[in-house]
UniProtKB/TrEMBL annotation:
Sequence segments annotated as region (Disordered): 38-64
Domain of life of the organism encoding this protein: Bacteria
Lineage start: Bacteria, Bacillati, Actinomycetota, Actinomycetes, Micrococcales
Name of the protein: DUF2017 domain-containing protein
Matches recorded under Pfam families: DUF2017 (PF09438)
InterPro entries: AosR
Length: 186
């Protein structure tokens, strides 16, 4: 049974069972794979060097659009912004997901402040993808999903994904609380 994150003298610490760690590593890997750039970098050598995207169109997958939203309602501005920033954003998100997966290899899971922030970003990206797949658009939707709490009652994919969403949400909440408790007191 998982014991959520808490602030300790040795860092932000959690105890997770092996199946829970494997599940999180799989979720992190799946989201990182989905974030892998779909389009090649620009043909221009300078643009390749600085990471300019060859195709500035928004992702078709709605979950990826949640992770990589348009920066403007103006389609031309959104495309231009995406062209210059999306590759770097994808790489940063993939880096955080991979770092979080590596953090799970110790028992207990112990994070320094930088690792904790990367772990929090990775959990958030997983939650956004799960929320999109579950159709969470309102407080009522979130409340409906929040009712699932018994792993022995999995009947279908939605129930399973709801339990995943709730587990990741709980873990992220304990991480954020531990980070708040680790702040210096003035």
């Amino acid at each position: 049974m998982a014991q959520g994150f808490r602030a300790t003298r040795k860092g932000i610490t959690a105890r997770l069972e092996e199946p829970e760690k494997e599940l999180l590593q799989k979720l992190f890997a799946d989201v990182a794979e989905a974030l892998a750039p779909e389009h090649p970098v620009s043909e221009d050598p300078l643009e390749r060097l600085i990471g300019v995207s060859g195709d500035p169109s928004a992702p078709e997958d709605p979950a990826l659009r949640r992770l990589l939203p348009d920066a403007s309602q103006d389609p031309e501005r959104a495309a231009e912004f995406r062209r210059y920033t999306e590759r770097g954003l994808r790489e940063a998100k993939i880096g955080a997901l991979k770092q979080a997966a590596l953090s799970l290899e110790s028992q207990p899971v112990r994070l320094d402040p930088d690792q904790a922030q990367a772990f929090g970003r990775a959990l958030n990206d997983v939650r956004l993808v799960l929320a999109d797949r579950l159709g969470i658009r309102s407080a009522e939707d979130a409340e409906r999903i929040g009712r699932y709490d018994d792993w022995s009652e999995i009947e279908d994919v939605e129930t399973y994904m709801s339990l995943l969403y709730n587990f990741v949400s709980w873990l992220q909440e304990t991480l954020m609380e531990a980070l708040l408790h680790s702040l210096p007191r003035d």
